[in-house]
Amino acid sequence: MRTRMALMYSLLWRLLLILVHVNRALFSWLHVRIQSWKGRLWERAATVLLLPISLVGFPDFQNNLNHGPDANVKPITEKRTGGGRSRCLSDGKSLKKIPVHIGLLVAEEEPSYPDIANVVVWCMAVGISYVSVYDNHGVFQKNNSRLLEEIKRQQQDLLGVDGSMHSVEFLSSGSDQHQHNVVSCRPTVRVLSPDDGKQSIVHVAQQLCRSVENKERSFKDINVSMLDLLLRESKNIPDPELVVKFGPVNSTLGFLPWHIRLTEFISLPSHRNISYEDLLGALQRYGACQQRLGQ
Amino acid sequence: MNEALYVFPGQRGRPSVLFQSRGGLVPCRSREPGLQLTVKSISGCKCNAISSKNGTLMWEPDAFPFVKAKTCTDMSWIKEGELSLLEKISANILKAGPMPKHVAFIMDGNRRFARKKNMERQEGHMQGFNKLAETLRWCKHLNIPEVTVYAFSIENFKRTEDEVDGLMELARQKFERLLEEHENLEKHGVCIRVLGDLNMLPLDLQQLIAKAVFTTRNHNKCFVNVCFAYTSRYEITNAVREMAWGVEQGLIKGSDVSEALLSECLYSNNSPNPDLLIRTSGEVRLSDFLLWQTSHSCLVFQSVLWPEYSFWNLCEAILQYQLNHKSIQKARDLHREHQALQQLEADRACVAELLQHHSNGKPVDSQRRQEALLHYTSCREERVRDFLEALKHKRDSFFSDLCSESLLA
Questions:
Q1: What kind and span of H or E run contains B152?
Q2: DSSP reduced 3-state for B281
Q3: Of A90, B87, B180, B221, which is most buried with the most CB atoms under 10 A?
């Protein structure tokens, strides 16, 4: 009797998962249709229809649907932004706040370089000065030259021939950069991997422990600001205010644990065929976040 | 003392309820979720004993000594009770899939809840605590043995003095209550741990906490970790400091420092990493909570306010965990492999350096190198074991010293 019950629950569980996947597929299909129809009425009707069905839903998705393209954003017919840099800049100015450092966390298998390059270029065009790209396999790290090429190509597409005048600082963990506390005027693109996370903290810890071993300091001197300073000296990565996560996996997957204490996380379903509107939507949602900082 | 409830006819025919707390008489509205009370008698009230404050009637404690309702259980850490049939069925369906063994909660939204319901802020926090007790009950029924909650951040010290004092007072009451029901805790096998920089708290609260932790330290059926005066950066810094202490004591070498060792020096070293982190009230950030431990956890952000959290919200979060389980497991395994590889590389480098010293530049054969590596690794592991033993002793003494201090006081 007990095994029969267990079997029944097991089947019911599988059914539940199937329902959720069907629901998600329906939502994403609808999302695509809505974008092409562009009718707000349809958006509302669809949301109302599907909301009772989606028990678990796909909360991020629903958010995407509800905070759809803003009335201020002029509808774009093409996927790639057609307006050029000045348009992106004006969109950036209309946002309540822009992050100084945006992290692009790709939680999907087999990343698509042109799409990521697109997002990077749009971020910079909107006025974000530090863009980092991360995946937990270190794929971007291994292929960073390919990524750089794609970014240069997309930059030319977006900005036209004079795009190359706005040079970009491209950093990866392999390259030597002794930036210390100098703030670069050029927008920076940084490729990150899991080693930039916990392993960097461990290196700083080793550094401190060695200096204690050599009697250069006492363990009592170690405090949060010292650790923070040393981390910034070795890898001058500013704290990201916003991380946009692409893909269905709901985890940071080892992304810069020390730096993300106050970071806002906004999820987008995928980076493949991503549109400028999707990114702008995410930035608008970021603009609405209010930080109380403990108070 | 805390549980005395006084009931008298209030406005619009609804009984108005007050309870006696350390700070005097505090109003609370009736019909609050989780507030169970049996009214013994409602008698008329003499007008001169009552004063009105913001529409809620309050009176002097001696006026109606015999109108005393049954002790309500809303202050307790443990809520008894089975799940409803529908809840039981849903729980059984979920349990057919992979279940998280450790869930972390950022219980956000108490103040917004209080504003929404026109309550005092302090009441919002109390409702929040009630919800915690209920959540622990649900977790027990869902066979989730470990729960970690973010009760008070070091950043929260920046709040107004009133609010901070109020929260400290609430903590005192809760830990006192905990000590009162230690038999119940033993029956359920609940082990309470408090994580954080406890020396930032007032001494009497530290002593209460130490007693609570000390009394429940051997229980092992379910574990509740309360993060109090905690931020993740302070925790990581403290772990580094402990390792540096170990180096200064000569227990370990600087080269023994690794990711695994740092994890063992965190406040949460007795717990596995959380499988699932839930934040309520719609905020989508981690606010310096378990940043190291949740690097490969399932993060679920829910917009419900914490005092309004329901069993179904919890089920929704667990379902998200189950949907992400395989991919997160894969990422965890990858990370673990990478970590092991890095440790091996580090050990090899140390051995190579040592051999170079001893052999004075002469080449070493691979067999000797392999033997040296094995020997070095086992020595390192022994050093680390001894160090961790010493660290555990240091931490246990901290709590037992505070306990004995409070006994003498």
A1: strand B146-153
A2: coil
A3: B87
Q: Rounded to the nearest 5 degrees, what angle is found at the Cα of B292, between the Cα atoms of A248 and A120?
A: 45
Chain A nearest CA to B334, separation (Å): 8
Pairing of the two strands B222-230 and B24-28: unpaired
User: Would strands B24-28 and B15-21 be described as parallel, antiparallel, or unpaired?
Assistant: antiparallel
Q: Say yes or no for a CB contact (<8 Å) between B93 and A9.
A: yes
Of A69, A30, A110, A93, which is closest to residue A270 (Cα–Cα)? A110
Q: Which SS3 state, helix, strand or coil, does residue B409 take?
A: coil
Cβ distance A222 to B294 less than 8 Å, yes or no, reads: no
Which of B240, B278, B303 should we substitute to test contact with A (largest number of A Cβ atoms within 10 Å)? B240
- Strands (E) in B60-100, as ranges, are none
d(CA A184, CA A101): 13
**A223 chain-B contacts, CB cut-off 8 A:** 237
Distance of alpha carbon B251 from the chain centroid: 31
- Name which of B236, B244, B335 is nearest A194 (Cβ-Cβ): B335
Q: What digits encode the pLDDT tens for the residues A57-83?
A: 444 444 444 444 433 333 433 444 445
How many other CB atoms are there within 10 angstroms of residue A16's CB atom?
Answer: 19
Contact list, B341 vs chain A (CB under 8 Å): none
Give SS3 for B71.
coil
Best of A4, A253, A283 to disrupt the B interface (most B CBs within 10 Å) is A253
Buried b (16+ CB within 10 A) or exposed e, B322-354: bbbbebbeebbebbeebbeebbeebbeebbeee
Strand extents, DSSP E, B29-97: 50-53, 56-59
Q: Which residues of chain B have pLDDT under 50?
A: 1-4, 9-15, 21-24, 29-74
How far apart, in whole angstroms, are the C-alpha atoms of residue A270 and residue B210? 48
CB distance A258 to A279 below 8 Å: no
Q: In terms of Cα–Cα distance, which of B263, B321, B322, B317 is closest to B293? A: B263
Nearest CA in chain B to A289: B283
Q: Are B296 and A253 in contact (CB under 8 A)?
A: yes
What are the residues whose beta carbons fall under 8 Å from the beta carbon of A45, sequence distance 6 or more?
none
Q: What is the pLDDT of residues A150-202, one digit of tens each?
A: 888 888 887 665 544 456 677 765 544 544 444 556 788 999 999 999 999 99
Determine the residue of chain A that is closest to B88 in CA distance.
Answer: A9
Q: Which pLDDT belongs to residue B219?
A: 93
Which amino acid, one-letter code, is at B232? Answer: S
CA dihedral A242, A247, A251, A252 (to 10 degrees): -40
Inter-chain contact B254–A194, Cβ cutoff 8 Å?
no
Closest by Cβ to A294, choosing from B158, B237, B294? B158
User: In the structure encoding, which two tokens stand for residue A184, read together?
Assistant: 């670069």
B244–A257 CB contact, under 8 Å = no
ipTM over 0.90 threshold: no
Q: Which of residues 146-175 of A touch B (CB under 8 A)?
A: none
Distance CA B35, CA A196 (A): 49
- In residues, how long is chain A? 295
**Sign of the alpha-carbon torsion through B52, B53, B58, B63:** negative
CA-based torsion, B271, B273, B274, B277: positive or negative = positive
| Amino acid at the residue B241 | R
Question: Cα-flanking dihedrals φ and ψ of residue B328, to 5°?
Answer: -70, -40
Size of interface A-B (CB pairs under 8 A): 172
Q: Which residues of B touch A12 (CB under 8 A)?
A: 93, 96
